[in-house]
Amino acid sequence: MTRAVLLDAAPADAPLFERPFDELVEEAVAFHGHLCPGQVLGVRMAVAGCREVGIPLPRQAGKGLVVVVEIDRCATDAIQALTGVSLGKRTLKHLDYGKMAATFVNVPRGVAVRVSARDGARARAASYTPGQSDGRQAQIQAYQVMPEAALLGIEPVVVNPGWLDRRRVRV
Asked: Rounded to whole angstroms, how far apart are CA atoms 114 and 70?
């Protein structure tokens, strides 16, 4: 990530899917603490999910964006960093299904998509990074350039009415 990329960066109020990828990764890494394949994957998931549900500025969406993550791993931190969703605001939900997947919900429009890592993406990473002997570095590099259709599955889903506005438990 070069300084020149940052000078040519889109403004922070530009739609998420129009901002330079390196800038998004830097934001995710600053939140998470280190660069790893999950961070790159989470950035790709956040960009795709927000684009597909029609939320270009997720940090400004407030309660209009809810994300349901299915794993408590590094990608979740990237999604949280870029979208502003959080458990405390009740806009980030965690259902531990052990899948590298997240459902993005545009609450006002009632539109939702599930974005998941394709099963074979990890195995195909080496084909996108010839000469890279370190598997982890191969994944980091490959997930940045792999075509979205090869890396992610994106499918529309229906969120059952009332599920997102379940009663709060007060302490």
From this structure: 10
- 81-87: long-range contacts (C-beta < 8 A, 24 or more apart)? 81/27, 81/28, 81/30, 81/31, 81/32, 82/16, 82/24, 82/27, 82/28, 82/42, 82/43, 82/46, 82/47, 82/58, 83/16, 83/46, 83/50, 83/58, 83/59, 84/58, 84/59, 85/58
Q: How far apart are CA 50 and CA 154, in angstroms?
A: 11
Percent of the chain with pLDDT over 70: 87
Phi/psi-derived region of residue 71, left when phi > 0, alpha when psi is between -120 and 50, beta in every other case: beta
Angstrom CA distances, 22 to 3, 7, 19, 25, 39, stand at 11, 12, 9, 5, 12
Quick check: 131 pLDDT over 90? no
Average pLDDT score over residue span 84-92: 92
Count Cβ atoms below 10 Å from residue 107 Cβ, excluding itself: 19
pTM: 0.86
Q: How far apart are CA 123 and CA 150, in angstroms?
A: 11
Q: How far is CA 25 from the centre of its chain?
A: 11
For residue 77, the model assigns a pLDDT of 94
